[in-house]
Amino acid sequence: MRYFIAFSYSGKNYFGYQIQPNQISVQEVLENALSTILREKIKTTGAGRTDTGVHAKKIFAHFDTEKNFGENFVYQLNSFLPSDISISRIFEVKDDLHARFNATFRTYEYYITLEKNPFTQDSSWQIWKRDLDIMRINEACKILFEYEDFTSFSKLHTDNKTNNCKIYKAFWEQNGSELKFTISADRFLRNMVRAIVGTMVEIGNGKMEPSDLRKIIEDKNRNSAGTSAPAKGLFLVDVGYDF
């Protein structure tokens, strides 16, 4: 039987979701907890491979087991896991439903704080020495919908078969000193959101014009885009499936 896990985590103490040699990962901690409670070796497959320091407000993984577990299983698992990983739901799905390959969309949020704030040090990029023009940034966001090849925002030397992504929404909102970027697409490339955010910041502070984004994308060259934004401001907030 195949089960889906809906969960969230703070990425501060982990080297991403996927198991890494000699580094602690969310997948390793989750699998150890499942294996201990179910008393068998459990392997999970996550909806995404979040980078070191990236957080997830809502993410899914699947695992297979023939064992039955009761209504208290979520409580047991949460009791066993550290405080920075939380399970919200576990439910049975079709045997061929894949947490990564059957996802229809993924949505990320990125947070920027325009003031020095000790309470958001681990959850936002603090840019308090200069202002950002959110109108210029949102003007640039509209250009993203004109393209599908985002090679310029992809980490170099990956094994992607294609760098094409279909972006469904991309916009910035401001609430006081906090800026939030929301972006949703059918898939994302490694480092893509952070590279887009870093480029948008350069547009927002006047180093680039919004229209420069077209040339950056058309160059299909990572060196043409801005530097990547810090991982700590990035959250995976939703993953969609046709259950």
From TrEMBL:
Domain Pseudouridine synthase I TruA alpha/beta: from-to ranges:
6-102, 148-242
Q: Which InterPro entries match?
A: PsdUridine_synth_cat_dom_sf, PsdUridine_synth_TruA, PsdUridine_synth_TruA_a/b_dom, PsdUridine_synth_TruA_C, TruA/RsuA/RluB/E/F_N
Which Pfam family, an example, fits this chain? Answer: PseudoU_synth_1
Do you know which CDD domains this protein is assigned to?
A: PseudoU_synth_EcTruA
Stated EC number for the protein is 5.4.99.12
Report the catalytic activity: uridine(38/39/40) in tRNA = pseudouridine(38/39/40) in tRNA
Q: Which GO terms describe its molecular function?
A: tRNA pseudouridine(38-40) synthase activity
Q: Which UniProt keywords apply?
A: Isomerase, tRNA processing
Where do the catalytic residues lie? Answer: 51 (nucleophile)
Q: Where does substrate bind?
A: 108
Origin: domain of life = Bacteria
Q: What does this protein do?
A: Formation of pseudouridine at positions 38, 39 and 40 in the anticodon stem and loop of transfer RNAs.
How does this protein assemble? Homodimer.
Q: Output the NCBIfam families linked to this UniProt entry.
A: hisT_truA
What does the sequence similarity comment in the record state about its family?
A: Belongs to the tRNA pseudouridine synthase TruA family.
Protein name in UniProt: tRNA pseudouridine synthase A
Q: Could you tell me which species this protein originates from?
A: Kaistella gelatinilytica
